[in-house]
C-alpha cells in the first residue's frame, strides 16, 4: 500500500517555516514572504513543493555551497506543485529557501479566504481566515503539504492597525509600521506540527475568555456585539481541556486556545492547533433562543475539535489512509467528554441511535469502504470524510472500550500519546498500545473490523431455555442492506465480541466469536422466563436477527422497559434493517412497533422516528400500505402527545425538550392535517409572528416542525411569513429553521421559488443546500423538482462549488438526487453521472444510487407481504 502513495520527493526535508503574509482586505490579495529551513539529503538542483493558485516572484537558496537563485519556477497545476530549478547543484546539508510570492483571498472557503458579513449596524464587512485540511495549506503558501512532514511554524501577519489578527500561537510582538496604517504581528513558534493545522484570522471580533483549572487561556471570538453568545462554548472548552489533560496523560501543550466563529465556513469546525475555527451555528449559543439540540451540537462540536488537539494534532496519522485515527477517535471522544460534562444528556444512549445508525446504513452497501482505506493521491481523501471514518470509526473504538474495559483502554491511550507525541502513527500503533496495556490480543479483533468493509448480521439459528439458562446457536454473515446474496468467494468473517443483557442487567461475560458458527450459553440471572438481548447496549457495529422465541421474550422486555434505552432502540432499528434485507417479515415489524406504545424515552423515539419515517417514505406511492403505516404512526404518536403535551414544563430536562421536538417533528409528518394539531401550531405561530423572541409559545426545538405544519396547511401568505423570517432573524440558527422547513410549502410555484432562491446568492454558499433538501424531502413533486433542477443547472452548480470543498457538492447531490425508491430513477441518475462525471464525488454518487436500488427492493418486499391485505391491518 505505502509504495503507491504519491508523495513529494524525499531528497529535501523541511524543518521550519517562517511565513509572513500581508493581506489586503480591499483588493482580496496578499503578498507573501517565506523562509524555509531545509535539510538537503541528496544534492539536487531542483526543490519541489506543494503550491496552488499562487504566483511566484523569486526564490533563492542559501546552502552549503553558497547562494543560489532559482532560474526557473515551474508551476504544475495538475499536481498542485511548484518546482524551483537552480542554476547550480544544492549541496547536502542544512539550507534556507527564501520565496517571494502572492495569492488571492478567495471566496471558496478553502486556503486563505475571505468571508463577508453584516455587522450589527448593518455595514458590510470583510474578514479573512484559513481552512487548510486536507490539502489547502498549499493554497496559502508553498509547503510540503503532507501530514508526516511536521515542522515548526513561525507566522507573521501584516494587517490594518484597527483589526485583530491571530494564529495558532500567542502574539510575540506587535509593531506599528511607518505611516501608522498597518501593524506587523509576530507570533511565537509553534510546536512541530503538520501543515494542515496551521491557521490565521484577520478581522473585527469581540471575545469572552476564561482560564482552565490547569492554566490555559481560552477565548471565544465572536462577531462584534455577540460576545455572550460565546459563553456556552467557552464553558464546554475549559472543562473538556482539563478533562483531556487527565484522560490522555499529556497536558495541552500550548499556552492558549482560541476558538473563532467564521461567517462563511464549509464544514462544521476545524481543529487547527490552538486556533479552532467554527461555523457560527456550531459555536454560538443565544442564551435565550437556543434549542437543546443546538446546545448539544455546540458542546459535541467543541469536545470533538478539542479531542483532536491530542488525536490529530499532537499525534497525527502518517498518511490519509489512516484518517479514521483522527476522525473516528475524535468522534468517540466527543461523546465521552459530553457525557462527562452533561451526564443527564445520556450521550451513549443517543450514540447508539444516531452515530450507530449512520455507520450501519452506509456500511451495509457494497459501495462502502474499509475504515482503513487505501489513498494513493491525496485528493482522494476528501471523499472519506464520511460516516465510515467518523461513525464506524468511533463505533469500533466504542467496541474496543467495551472489550478492554475503561482502565486498560485509557492506560493504552496514555502510553500511545507519550510515545508518539509530536510524531506520526499508523493504526497498528494503537493496537500495540492496547495490547500492551491489557495483555489481550486486541489487534486481531480490531483488524477484522477496520481492514475489511462491512459488518456482520448475527443470526440466531436456534435457542432453548432451560434450567435458568439460555442456549443460543449463532451464525455470522456479511450484512447487505438489500439482502443480496453473499457469494462463497465474498464471504467474510469478523472477530465478534458478544455481549448480552437479560432482565437482570448486562452480563460480565464476553463470548468471542471467531468462526461463522458458535453456540453460547447465557445465565438468565434467576429470571427463567425473561429475555436475552444480544449486543447489549449496541456496543458492537452489527445487526442481530432473533428467532421467534427470543423475539417474543424481547417484546415483553420492551413493553415493561426491562432493558435500557439503547437496547430498546436497537431491537427496533435492527428489525427495520432486517425487513429491508428480506430477513424478517414486514408484518412482524409492524407488530413489533406496537410494543413501543408506552414508550416515552427521547432516544428510543428517535429510533421510532427513523422507522416510521422510513416506512412512510418507502410506501409513499402505495396508498393502501401507506394508509396503514400512517394510521399506526398516528396511534402511537397520539399516545405520546397525550403524555408529553406541547407545553414546556418546569421540571423539563434536556431530553424532555429533545423528545418534544421529536414529537412535533413526527406530528408535522403524520398528523399535520389533524384539527387539534393545526390549532396548536396556528396559535403558536401567530404569537411568534407578533414577537419572534417569544420562546414560550414557540420554543426553538419546535420552530422548524411548526413552520412545516403552517406551510403544509397554508398558502402564499404562510409561505411569505415563514420566508420573511429568514430576512428578519439576526441569528443564524434561527435562519436555519427557515431553510430546513421552507420547502414544505404546498404549491409547486413556491417550491420552485425556494429552489431558485437558494442559488440566487441570497443564501450563503455554506447553507443553500439545506433549503434544497427541504424541498426534496417535502413530497414526491419536491423530489422531482430538485432532481430536475440539479440536472438543468448542473454547469452553474459546478461553477458555484467547483473550487470549494467536495463535501459541499456531496451535500447538494444527496439533497437533490438522493432518496428515490425506484430502479428507474437509479438508472437515470447513474446515467447522468456517467455522462457528467464528478470524480471528487464519485463515491457519494455510487452510494446514493445503491441506496436507491435497496429502497426499490424494500418497496417490492412490502407490497408482496401481508401488508397488502386488509385483514392484516384489521388484526392489529
Ligand atoms: N477535521 C474536521 C474538519 C474537516 C472535515 C476538514 C472535512 C476537512 C474535510 C473536523 O474535526 C470535523 O470533523 N468537523 C466536523 C464536525 C464534528 C463535530 C463532527 C464537521 O465539520 O462536520
Ligand atoms: Zn474531526
Give a short synopsis of this structure:
This protein is α+β, with helices and mostly antiparallel strands and about 900 residues long. Among the domains are: about 1-200, Immunoglobulin-like, CATH 2.60.40; about 315-455, Neutral Protease, domain 2, CATH 1.10.390.10.
Describe the structure in your own words:
It holds the Pfam family Peptidase_M1_N. InterPro entries: Aminopeptidase_N-like_N, Aminopeptidase_N-like_N_sf, ERAP1-like_C_dom, M1_APN-typ, Peptidase_M1, Peptidase_M1_aminopeptidases, Peptidase_M1_dom, Peptidase_M4/M1_CTD_sf. This is Aminopeptidase. Belongs to the peptidase M1 family. GO terms for molecular function: metalloaminopeptidase activity; peptide binding; zinc ion binding. This protein is an alpha+beta fold and 876 residues long. Among the domains are: 1-202, tricorn interacting facor f3 domain (Immunoglobulin-like); 316-454, Orthogonal Bundle (Neutral Protease, domain 2). Helices cover 41% and strands 22% of the residues. It is built from 27 helices and 30 strands. The strands form eight sheets. It has a ten-stranded mixed beta sheet, with no helix packed on it. The protein has a five-stranded mixed beta sheet with strand order 15-16-17-19-18, covered by helices on one side. Strands 28-23-22-30 form a four-stranded mixed beta sheet. Strand 22 (456-466) and strand 23 (469-478) form a beta hairpin. Helix 21 (768-778) packs parallel to helix 24 (806-817). The longest helix is centred in the last third of the chain and has 22 residues, at 623-644. Ligand BES binds at residues 133-134, 267-271, 300-301, 304-305, 308, 327, 330, 385, 807.
